[in-house]
Design a protein that fits this description.
Blueprint (H helix, E strand, L loop, with lengths): L1 H7 L5 H25 L12 E2 L3 E3 L3 E3 L2 E8 L4 E6 L4 E5 L5 H14 L30 H22 L10 E3 L4 E11 L8 H6 L2 E9 L9 E7 L16 E3 L4 E5 H5 L4 H19 L4 H4 L8
Antiparallel strand pairs: 1-2, 2-4, 3-4, 4-5, 5-6, 7-8, 8-9, 9-10, 10-12, 11-12
Helix pairs in contact: 2-3, 4-7
Length: 305
């Protein structure tokens, strides 16, 4: 059973694929910024996210005038497809190439399809951002590593959707934020959050209401390994010391997050249940401490998906 679980939840050491990760992060930002520029604004910036598909990551349909188009990363055949609603399509092969080359070819494809767009051509949420058109530092792409990272995201997406079904209050979809390169799910109490002086416009909108968020990182500057995470905003007093499950879960004060390292669940006999235990126990701790009206916000356990 452990071997079977390991095949479903493949190994993903950050050090092994960090170069491919860094390049892919920039490519998803380029495509994600297209969706940001053209999609109608939604609360909490939900209109910017990408979504998991059976082959990779997609923008979902993006409006352009009276038509729509969609851009999808395919991590099986390793190409980016831009598909217009009249049937016209273009493909960009995914392989070792610089961010600058990818950016120029992608923008040329959009022009060729008469999909004009303007956005700030600089990455967000990264240290030392390099404009896309000038970035020849990030140029790695290992197809096997890209495919493996996508397969891990698929499993995280599947479990987060099961967890989402336990909640009947306002909830985000399970979506992929290209800024932080993380999969996220957010639940809301229904109450406005206190003002956050000194934060930028993006964060003010993103955290305008009380929330408890959970998700998955393939690895980040703060967490140098893949991990599931949970945080509450605003964080209620006592959350950091709350008893949560399973045993491998820990609170990171530098991040204000509980995390569950991916490696600790990957080869467990029942990874799904271990992750759900983490998501449920951290949510309950935050919701109880913040005095959420859980009786009206949650589906009874007998009706959980």
């Amino acid at each position: 059973m452990v071997a079977a679980a390991a095949e479903v939840w493949p190994s993903l050491p950050l050090e092994e694929w960090k170069d491919t990760y860094a390049t892919l992060h920039m490519w998803t930002q380029i495509v994600g910024k297209t969706r940001l520029a053209l999609s109608p604004k939604e609360n909490h910036w939900w209109h910017v996210a990408l979504y998991l598909t059976a082959r990779g990551l997609t923008t979902t349909p993006v409006p352009h005038g009276t038509s729509v188009f969609e851009a999808e990363f395919d991590f099986i055949d390793h190409r980016l497809t831009v598909l217009r609603s009249d049937g016209e399509a273009r493909h960009i092969p995914l392989g070792p190439r610089s961010v600058a080359d990818f950016y120029h070819e992608y923008m040329a494809v959009l022009d060729d399809l008469s999909l004009s767009v303007r956005f700030r051509p600089v990455p967000d949420e990264v240290e030392h951002p390099i404009p896309f058109a000038e970035d020849r530092q990030h140029a790695s792409y290992d197809p096997e590593q890209a495919n493996r990272s996508w397969r891990v995201l698929l499993q995280a997406d599947r479990i987060l959707k099961r967890f989402r079904g336990r909640f009947i209050g306002k909830s985000s979809p399970v979506h992929f934020f290209w800024g932080g390169f993380d999969l996220a799910l957010t639940r809301f109490s229904g109450r406005r959050a206190p003002a956050r002086p000194g934060t930028d416009r993006m964060m003010q909108e993103a955290m305008s209401h009380e929330e408890i968020s959970a998700g998955f990182w393939p690895g980040s500057a703060g967490v140098r390994e893949p991990a599931f995470y949970t945080y509450a905003a605003p964080e209620p007093p006592g959350f950091a010391a709350a008893p949560v499950r399973p045993l491998g879960a820990q609170y990171r004060r530098d991040l204000s997050n509980f995390i569950l390292p991916y490696e600790s669940i990957r080869t467990a006999p029942a990874p799904d249940e271990l992750v759900l235990e983490f998501l449920q126990s951290t949510y309950e701790a935050a919701a109880d401490l913040a005095r959420w009206d859980r009786a009206t916000l949650e589906r009874p356990p007998s009706e959980w998906p």
